[in-house]
Amino acid sequence: MPLATTRRTGLVDQVIGQLRDAIAQGEWSIGQRIPTEAALAESLGVGRNTVREAVRALAHSGLLEVRQGDGTYVRATSEVSGAIRRLCGSELREVLGVRRALEVEAARLAATVRTDEELAAITELLDRRDAAYRVEEIETYVRADTEFHLAVVRAAHNDLLTELYRGILEAVTASVAATTDTRLPESEAIGHRGLLEAIAARDAERAMAEAAGFLDSLIREA
Q1: Rounded distance between C-alpha atoms, residue 107 and residue 112, angstroms
Q2: Are 52 and 46 in contact (CB under 8 A)?
Q3: C or N: which end of the chain has fewer Cβ atoms within 10 Å?
Q4: Closest C-alpha among 155, 75, 48 to residue 109
Q5: What is the pLDDT of residues 124-139, one digit of tens each?
Q6: Which candidate, 113, 49, 85, places its Cα nearest to that of 170?
Q7: For residues 3 and 54, is the Cβ–Cβ distance under 8 A?
Q8: 170 contacts 177 by C-beta, under 8 angstroms
Q9: Is residue 61 within 8 Å of 24, Cβ to Cβ?
């Protein structure tokens, strides 16, 4: 999607907004280098100083990373994600700890307020996850596992909780990939059938225990 030419008022804020939208909409993916300062200035119809200020602001908020002599890269898809990625860094244990704080409460709420439609969606995602594990399709498995957890969080019907979780979604995906070994027999892999059953039965206490249990196990091994 091409960037629109900006108006002549509030140029830096407008450029920040357009770059932020381009990142959020997938114009540039995580880890991808964005166009050069000169190219962006020409596309937007603004000066290079304006682009430089906008990039600096987005780097400060965690969306971009400026690598001297190399270029500017996308680091996160939202300010929330960027902030939490800075907080957690690359430490797996820290990411898992944040996941535990959010996912245990989400499991409790989902067991209490989920709808039948949400339960069906959660079940379908878990089936897809487990099927991918059996045939060792790691990318499909990681994606389905992440979507499963996000669906549980959404079923909690707490908008702030969902927004916080979406903010760490890249870190969640990375933690799933880092803790998955599809070479293990399925019986030895971490499963989520107990969590699904607890949510289906509207058993909030068991849902919390199931969510805490597998994350505690991962934290101990991290």
Answers
A1: 9
A2: no
A3: N
A4: 155
A5: 999 999 999 999 888 8
A6: 85
A7: no
A8: no
A9: no
Which value, in Å, is the radius of gyration of the alpha carbons in the chain?
A: 20
The yes-or-no verdict on residue 88 having pLDDT over 80 is no
- On whether the pTM is more than 0.70, the answer is no
Q: Are 64 and 75 in contact (CB under 8 A)?
A: yes
CA nearest to 218, candidates 178, 185, 183, 182: 178
Answer for the pair 50, 37: CB distance below 8 angstroms, yes or no.
no
Can you give the chain as a three-state secondary structure string? CCCCCCCCCCHHHHHHHHHHHHHHCCCCCCCCECCCHHHHHHHHCCCHHHHHHHHHHHHHHCCEEEECCCEEEECCCCHHHHHHHHHHCCCHHHHHHHHHHHHHHHHHHHHHHCCHHHHHHHHHHHHHHHHHHHCCCHHHHHHHHHHHHHHHHHCCCCHHHHHHHHHCHHHHHHHHHHCCCCCCCHHHCCCCHHHHHHHHCCCHHHHHHHHHHHHHHHHHHC
Distance from C-alpha of 172 to C-alpha of 56, rounded to nearest angstrom:
27
Q: Phi first, then psi: give them for residue 65, nearest 5 degrees.
A: -130, 120
Reported as a single tens digit per residue, the pLDDT across 8-21 is 448 899 999 999 99
**Residue found under tokens 């805490």:** 212
